[in-house]
Amino acid sequence: xxxxxxxxxxxxxxxxxxxxxxxxxxIANILNITPGDSINIAIIDGxxxxxxxxxxxGRRRAVCFxxxxxGRSLCCNSVALCQQIFNISKVSPQKTxxxxxxxxxxxxxxxxxIITGFPIISPPPLK
Length: 127
What we know:
Blueprint: E1 13-15, E2 20-23, H1 25-31, E3 38-44, E4 47-53, E5 65-66, E6 74-77, H2 79-89, E7 96-98, E8 104-106, E9 109-114, E10 120-121
Antiparallel strand pairs: 1-2, 1-7, 2-6, 3-4, 4-9, 5-6, 7-10, 8-9
C-alpha cells in the first residue's frame, strides 16, 4: 500500500522569507494571542519555544494582527525571526511550515514547542 498523503496533519505555523508569519487559530487560542501582542521564540535546551509578549508601549517587532476579518488565525511580520528559524531548522529560505507540540508552562508562562526538526517545505510552483 502507498499513501498519497505523507502527512495528514496541517501545519501550525508558517514562515516566509519575506518575514510574514502565519499562526493558526489553534496556536492563537492556546497561547491566548490577541491582535497587538507580539510573538517571540525562546531557545531552551535546543528546543524552539513560541511564546507571547503582551501588548506594550513603543515600537515592537512581530506584532500580531488578524489574517482575515472575523477569523482567529493571525499574521505578523519579522524578517529577523524568520531568518533565525530558517537557520535553526537548516532549511533554505523558502516558505516553510512547522507542527507544534503540546503546551508547556515555564515560570507560569505558556510556551508552545515548534518542531523544527521536521519542517514541511512547500514545493516550488509548477510552470
